[in-house]
Amino acid sequence: MIEISHVNKWYSPSFQVLTDCTTSVTKGEVVVVCGPSGSGKSTLIKCVNALEPFQSGDILVDGIKVNDPKTNLPKLRSRVGMVFQHFELFPHLKIIDNLCLAQEKVLDRSRDKAKAKGMQLLERVGLKEQAQKYPANLSGGQQQRVAIARALAMDPIVMLFDEPTSALDPEMVSEVLDVMVDLAHEGMTMMVVTHEMGFARKVANRVIFMDRGEIVEDAAKEDFFGKPRSDRAQKFLSKILSH
Amino acid sequence: MFGNLDFDVIRRALPYLFLEGMTFTLTLTGLAALGGLVFGTALALMRLSGFKILGRIAGIYVDFMRSLPLVLVIFWFYFLVPYIGQWVTGASRPISVGAFASSLITFIMFEAAYFSEIMRAGIQSISRGQPAAASALGLTYAQTMRYVVLPQAFRNMLPVLITQTIVLFQDTSLVYVLSITDFLGAASKVAQRDGRLVEMYLFAAIVYFTISCIASYGVRRLQARIAIIR
Q1: Domain map of chain B by residue range?
Q2: Whole-number average pLDDT of chain A
Q3: Which residue of A has its CA nearest to B141?
Q4: What does the pLDDT look like over B66-95, one tens digit per residue?
């Protein structure tokens, strides 16, 4: 589904953010990307739908080359759902319109059809009653669930999560993770940048550990939590799992 | 002290002042604001676009316009446009465009420079995550601008845009250099004809003051109503 091969990204010769990153996500797989802040994990996931350009290497999504200038990026992106750290709902639109906008403008769905789909997804994330409110009237956890519903409304073939719970108050983290766990159980292909190791243990197939722009460890979940091979991953794990 | 003032001259001149003068002033203000907005948005998008050359051109234009006194631009433009028209169309004689068209084009070009800076600030006030989220959903650049960035930016900058339009409303009085009969021009003609300078200029001041004040009050009301809750 996602093929990342030898991706390099730098802002200047002395400022390399991604170094020779190679990995893949197969259909139905849930891959968690973790690592210390500044390790390039958010940058890598943003390269997947070309929100961030990169200088060399290739990324293929469903066989389509992301970094090919001839690729119809809007079309490709419409099939790749993305959830951001800061939700990024559109504050001037009602919740239901947040879900309808891209359905109507990108997928050319009729207003009624888009609305029906939107309501169905809002119900699924438990927010049907909030449809007529504005994003600012919702809590962080609710906004992030709306953001997930908004991405799902496009019937994506894969979902990217960029630290979906880092900006949330602790008591709201689980309501968002619950939605993500359900999604994983339904067989959605997911690439998730997160520090939530509980989530990784529960649903991840593989865990990728990044440090200083490199993929240091790329292992099945059991191997990663059982016996990480690299020192850096061990140190990282002992730091975030110690309490 | 008001013994020898004749305020009846105002009453007699009212139809002329408003039907001709004020109509012209409001028409010019409205059209110039509209044109300035369109052209200004284009300039702002040029400056914010990834293309360096476009940004430079827009930047130079804005700096140039903002460094000249408006009255000078109006004056120069009135004399230059016929020759530019001749040069563009290849006509044998300078093309007469008329004082109204000339002043309208001037105001549009001048206001666009100011509007574009307001728009630029408005667009830049939208966090970068918003266009990122819009493109991640598959919206094109144009759709992102139209449905996500500009609606929010407009709400943020509308008060400043209208305030600038109120300034424009007052600035339109500068068309007197082309002997056009705007509101102030009409008042001044009556004043000269009847020798009633104090009355007429006093009245003109009150009218400008009242309209601008009401408009400013309206802006504050509007601001409270359209603000996006965050």
Answers
A1: 8-226
A2: 93
A3: A74
A4: 999 999 989 888 888 888 888 888 888 888
Q: Give the CA distances from residue A183 to residues A134, A148, A190, B3, B141, in Å, rounded to whole numbers and listed in that order.
A: 25, 10, 9, 87, 30
Smallest CA–CA distance, residue B115 to chain A, in Å, is 22
The pTM of this model reads 0.81
Cα distance between residue B135 and residue B145, in whole Å? 10
Q: How far apart are CA A114 and CA A102, in angstroms?
A: 9
Domain B8-226 matching CATH 1.10.3720.10: the answer reads yes
Strand-pair partners of A160: A82, A191
DSSP state of A60: E
From the list A77, A105, A134, the residue facing B136 with the nearest CB is: A77
Strands A56-61 and A2-12: antiparallel
CA distance to partner chain B, nearest, from residue A225 (Å): 32
Residues of A in contact with B230 (CB under 8 A): 91, 136
Q: Would you give the distance in Å from CA A24 to the centre of its chain?
A: 14
Q: Do A82 and B134 touch (CB under 8 A)?
A: no
Q: Which residue of A has its CA nearest to B134?
A: A102
**List of chain A residues whose C-beta atoms are within 8 Å of the C-beta of residue B135:** 51, 73-74, 77
* Whether the Cβ atoms of residue B185 and residue B25 lie closer than 8 Å to each other: no
